[in-house]
Amino acid sequence: MAPRLLPELGEKLGEKAMATLRYRGIEFSLGTSVDATTVKLTDGRTLPSHTLIRTAGVSASPLVATLGAETVRGRLAATPQLTVPGFDGLFAAGDAAAVPDLAKGGDAVCPPTAQHAQRQGKALAENILARLRGAPLKPYVHKDLGLVVDLGGIDAVSKPLGLEPHGLPAQAVARGYHLLALPTLTARTRVVTNWTLNALAGDDFVRTDFQSRRPGTLQDFESATSYLTPEQVREHSRPLAARA
């Protein structure tokens, strides 16, 4: 629906990414969305298809909608201290939270990336300890180091520290960052092995038939099998003394 591809990376890198994908035969329809029930586009076109794959970016867990709290594009409106206004003792971080980006003046919110989520998780834990000890909470501040987008093969676009490489140099930055973000040596070894096999095979392979007998839902990719109702959330949110 956006006017250009990858607006977070700027117009130049967005055009580079689009040119790379167009070379592979991918057609773009900018400023257009897909109807919720059919393959009819909002600009009036109907596309014949055998397999339809729809990606709509990052969204917060459906649990967020059950809280009755203020949201920003589906994410909990949080304070710089990662607390949720109106809910005493409730903290939010990562994809579930719209945290003011103080490094950019606080008018915008931090993007839902691992770069922010990892650091917000640490800041949230420190603020929980501070709350238990009666100490003041610290605001979350992090200057974004840039974004990386892997386009497959040797193609990528990235924007580290204000630079705008593309192609193989950007791919090296993207994959190097992903490796550093993995928590264990075992995980890094598995990922490097997978990259090596893909390079030798000449393409990327992903197994997607685990749900071939039924449509997938967002709940299939969540750790919980069901979600609490707003009443259940409020009951679980009450202090223990109040429940007694």
TrEMBL record:
Transmembrane segments: none annotated. It comes from the Bacteria. Residues 2-121 form the FAD/NAD(P)-binding domain. It holds the Pfam family Pyr_redox_2. Keywords: FAD, Flavoprotein, NAD, Oxidoreductase. Belongs to the NADH dehydrogenase family. It comes from Streptomyces chryseus. Signal peptide: none annotated. Gene3D superfamilies: 3.50.50.100. This is FAD/NAD(P)-binding domain-containing protein. InterPro entries: FAD/NAD-bd_sf, FAD/NAD-binding_dom, NDH-2.
